[in-house]
Automatic annotation (TrEMBL):
Lineage: Bacteria, Pseudomonadati, Pseudomonadota, Gammaproteobacteria, Oceanospirillales
Protein name: Sorbosone dehydrogenase
CDD domains (alphabetical): ALDH_SNDH (cd07118)
Domain Aldehyde dehydrogenase residues, every copy: 37-498
Residues forming the catalytic site: 275
Amino acid sequence: MANETDSTSSVTWAQGPRVAEVPSEPFRGQLFINGQWREASGGERLTRTSPAYGVVVGDYARATAADTEEAIGVARVAFDQGEWPRMSGAQRAAVLNRVADLVMARQEEFALLELFESGKPISQARDEIQWAAELWRYAAVCARGLHGDSYNTLGEDMLALVLREPIGVVSIITPWNFPFLIVSQKLPFALAAGCTAVVKPSELTSGTTVLLGEVLKEAGLPDGAANILVGTGPEVGAVMCGHKDVDMVSFTGSTGVGKALSATAAQTLKKVSLELGGKNPQIIFPDCDWDAAVDAVVFGTYFNAGECCNSGSRILVHESIAADFEQAVIERARKVPVGDPLCEQTKVGAIISDGHLATIQGYVQGALDAGARVSLGGQALDVQGLYMAPTILSGVSPEMAVAREEVFGPVLSVLTFGDLEEAISIANDTLYGLSAGVWSANIENCLAIGRRVKAGTVWLNTWMSGYPELPFGGYRESGQGRELGRFGIEEFTELKTIQMHMGPRTGWWLPKG
């Protein structure tokens, strides 16, 4: 693509050589069941066309319900009779660390496969693989440190232990936006706890998860401890959620699908962990670090083309600085390089599918119909591939759908507030509660937002920082349960109380002699 700013769309196109060529043949994958690669029982295959290049880049065996039943049965046997749950934490940690090493040895291979299937820029794909590897390493630490509790204060004749035991067979269902990162927020922690798993990636971005199967095998994970199926929700996901031999479901995706999944899982009362949508505000006060806040808003909106549950897709700006701050964001956003994901300069790549691109455009049109105006972008780009211009919507009011619902695209809604109380009210005026941020030099403003905004993560004078040690998850319709940190491994455990009595026991009832 040429290095120019289009006068109609105000988009700056990335420039520079490609780091690789678009593949002439797709990546081919099979099902990974009981440590073996095999074709699907129905003989069908599922293909993936790159949203950036319009060519088939993935070709996978398409799992059936029967394949899913088999994989669950294998995972059940591996848990009930296999060696993995009975290994020491140190032994499990050694395998997880080997996985991390092997992933990083193939980082570019993983990154390119993710790029071709998702349309994300190469720099972001590489970062995702590296971050994912760090999660495997942290899970290895958790495998060695998982522990329960003891009670020595119950009297001289009683000692009690609280054990954390692996919950059992876990169904893991992951989305298309960060396929390798999100499977790495789940699978290594389940394995660290001693669970076994069946994994279904999104059919749009299955490649890196399938490639992970090769790494797990090479790292020495026992057969059956992790099984990988490519398929659709109705064929595969429904069985994974409802099967009686599955003890837990861990899902990341849309809130609507999460609700349906919960209803299915409820039939067997299995545990469910959900990481769902978000409508995350950044609240900007007049005393903010101006340049840092502007940069964070642009990053928070356009990173991964806005296809991110943590996207800062709405900003709440104090009315005294709103016009100037918005103009600064517009000027910065115009300079963000859009285009070929294989160019290292690119910051905004392709949209995942034509259907999703239409959904994003629908939200923009709905905002215009409701009285908002486009200050930047606003349309799909007339180029090869599926691209949406970085977009800024001004004059957005809190009741508009674009201010309350998850757009999941490179679209920023600008709202204003008059005081702290109004900012908190607007921030909380949504069904979601995943993350939020505040920009102010006043620590009282920061702590008030941190305490009173209903969100699982609140960033103070930063945005989208992340560490394996810290839990991640949301309030309300953003989900339930937590990933990462010590809480991440505890999600995959059951608590068991053991009470030990010492000495003679007093009878409950003895007849009078």
